Amino acid sequence: MSHAPGAAAVAALVAGLTLGMAGVVGAGAGSLWPTAADLAALRFTVLQAALSAVISCALAVPVARALARRRFLGRGVLITLMGAPFLLPVIVAVLGLLAVFGRSSIVSDGLALAGLPPLSIYGLHGVVLAHVFLNLPLVTRMLLMGWQAIPAERFRLAQSLGMPPAAQFRHLEWPMLRAVLPGAAVVVFTICLASFAVALTLGGGPGATTVELAIYQALRFDYDPARAAALAVIQFGLGAVAVALGWAVLGRAGFGSGLGRRIGVGAPKGWRRGADALAVMLAAAFLLVPLGAVVWRGVGGLGDLPAGLWAALVRSVAVALLSTGVTMGAALVLALAVARGARGAGLFDTVATLPLAVSGLVLGTGLFLTVQPFVRPEAVALPVTVMVNALLSLPYAYRLLLPEARALHADYDRLARSLALTGVARLRWVALPRLARPLGFGAGVAAALSMGDLGVITLFAGESGATLPLYVHRLMGAYRMDAAAGAALVLVAASFALFALFDGMGRRAATR
Amino acid sequence: MKTSILALGFATVATGFACAAAAETPVLTVLTYDSFVAEWGPGPAVEKAFEADCACDLRFVAAGDGAALLARVQMEGAASDADVVLGLDTSLTAAARATGLFAPHGQTWANTLPVPFEDADFVPYDWGWFAMVYDKTKVTDVPTSFEALAASDLKIVIQDPRSSTPGLGLLLWVKAAYGDRAKDIWAGLADNIVTVTPGWSEAYGLFTEGEADMVLSYTTSPAYHLIAESDDTKAAAVFDEGHYMQVEVAGKLAATDQPALADRFLAFIGSDAFQSTIATTNWMYPAVTPAGGLPEGFDRFRPAKSLLMSADEAAAARDGALAEWQAALAQ
């Protein structure tokens, strides 16, 4: 057990902000007793989030496995592009899905030719479909990194021992999945817990109410902060249970060290080649066709974009870059401390996941109530947005870093000690090069999440402080759906460019 | 690179403080909703016209939609910097009045709403009739009442009353038109409703993408398409039972440090300079018909009967109507 003062400071800050803000909102202290409608919302919330998490994870395994052991033209581009759905603003993602699965989509038109009724995407299945669309890429990437973290020597050894693919899976791949999947499932589950626009729009009606909508209603429509806080506690409890369950089934991989070469995962021939190709093609079609629809729709609106858009774009990029810096610093400090089992590691791990369980709306409202007596909210709109975005993307960045930080500690701790590498030198020569891949991917996700965020800014924005997502929202609110589609395309392109930049930097640094 | 990003961040903060410090001319702060301040909304024109002779700085602060505005006022309480709140509607005014944060407006100018509208605390600045909007090229058998709509197999998309003011307006519309039968109307409409969205934009987006035959919007929506896009295919269904009105209002905060300027702004709301900007920027009816008349398309879909509950009636009806709606649609 060693001390980690840096991690303790970061953890204290994160816990203070998340729990403190929830406390500020709930200062009136309402009854925690849920109504019948709350219980129905709770049931639906858990059901859709659990289904979304299980299906996203189950589908991601064959896709990530195929991507890990096959090399084909466009593989790198595909892996990068697969990050894109996660970055889409909710309403844009929904409209993209509707272009494929909606009542007036190509598929429905085809069904009509055959005399069949149009597809109905509305209902629980629609909600789960959208959540899988948004989260499958994230889980795939988490698993892909898991596969790449298995030292190539292990696969060589397995092959020289004549292990068939099934035995390789049991001895090498299954332990990795046991280590990575629970964390990924918890992340998806908690993302879907906080869903509100997707769940309502595709849920089809009040039967598809989530706890987050009840929080929204309590804060924005009834202005009942005590009730909002009570609901936030329920939501938080769900997230906490999920994290605890994830912990309980979390396995440790412990492969021992390799030479850090990341070349071949064994690539069996025969029918497995066809199965892998099928998995990749289906996933690519599922993810890229709706994305294509978003692009197609947006290109038409590029002609009449208002001039104010570009200032909003600059603002969004600045916010994204700043919050990404904060997120990655905090995530790295926490992941390294937890990986080496520093004093309080269990606590740090919980704290790093904490922001996932707190509603962004509750967080923003708490901050608003905290700063408003002292300073005009619109004067601090952007700094507050930076801080909240950094906090909200911390769990993703942390979850991505942790497995590799653990492997790094297991593999290189003794070597680093024998060389007496400590502090900055150890970070520079040991940690950063080997964590480059998850660092890059994590930074990409954090930047893109921050670009697309439309939670906090709406509470704080002044007349000229709009970020790009808010701008898209305003265009839609003024009937200008074509311009909104164009602006959304600019938003997606910019988010994706940031994501690809960071992700690419990470992957290049890792292959060196 | 890193330093320039940091500098940008600091500059953003610094600009905020600098603006606060440079306020020598009196500043009138108007808290309003998002789309009002957008560059294509009424905000810029209103600001220019008012500042032309007030010797003041009119500053807008935007906060989401009407409901978010009220929440913001409640959050800020008497410590608010805002002097005037613009953008509440009559389903929110009872709650707004109950906060005790608003002062009587003292205005005497007369509005031209189709129903008598008097309120000691809030002046109307625009209004509209809710309506089901459809595409003339796709819907030919247009229903003339909610009953006919429920009996048809037309697909509609509406907004959730728990998160949007049009959604709440629809609840009050059905309640005002059908009273105790509202429950049956909702039961009949259940199979027509494709989905319920969190806000107006999502619903209108689904409609324009062809997901539904009709969408809950306003009788003036087709005028937008006609005027701004030269598109004459959109129309509003006129219902025999009458159409519920949304009246958007402004009020003066009691804790304002600029009471005279605030009064002046509330008077300005009734002037032609303000009212003539509303129709084609906010796409609603001006509260006072401008001297130049209404733009093309605003007279096309005029219901014979206007429905509007008083602020207190609306507040009293809300919870019950919401429970009926949830019960009928949640299956």
Automatic annotation (TrEMBL), chain A:
Keyword Transmembrane helix applies: yes
Gene Ontology terms describing biological process: transmembrane transport
UniProt key word Ubl conjugation: no
Compartment(s) of residence: Cell membrane
Membrane-spanning residues: 46-64, 76-101, 121-144, 179-202, 229-255, 275-296, 316-339, 351-374, 380-398, 439-461, 481-502
Membrane topology reported for the UniProt record: Multi-pass membrane protein
Keywords associated with the record: Cell membrane, Membrane, Transmembrane, Transmembrane helix, Transport
Domain of life: Bacteria
GO cellular component, one term: plasma membrane
Protein name: Thiamine/thiamine pyrophosphate ABC transporter permease ThiP
Source organism of the structure: Paragemmobacter aquarius
From TrEMBL, chain B:
CDD domains named in the record: PBP2_TbpA
Residues spanning the membrane: none
Key words of the record: Periplasm, Signal, Transport
Compartment(s) of residence: Periplasm
Annotated signal peptide: 1-20
Pfam families in alphabetical order: SBP_bac_6 (PF13343)
UniProt similarity note: Belongs to the bacterial solute-binding protein 1 family.
Record organism: Paragemmobacter aquarius
GO CC entries: outer membrane-bounded periplasmic space
Name of protein: Thiamine ABC transporter substrate binding subunit
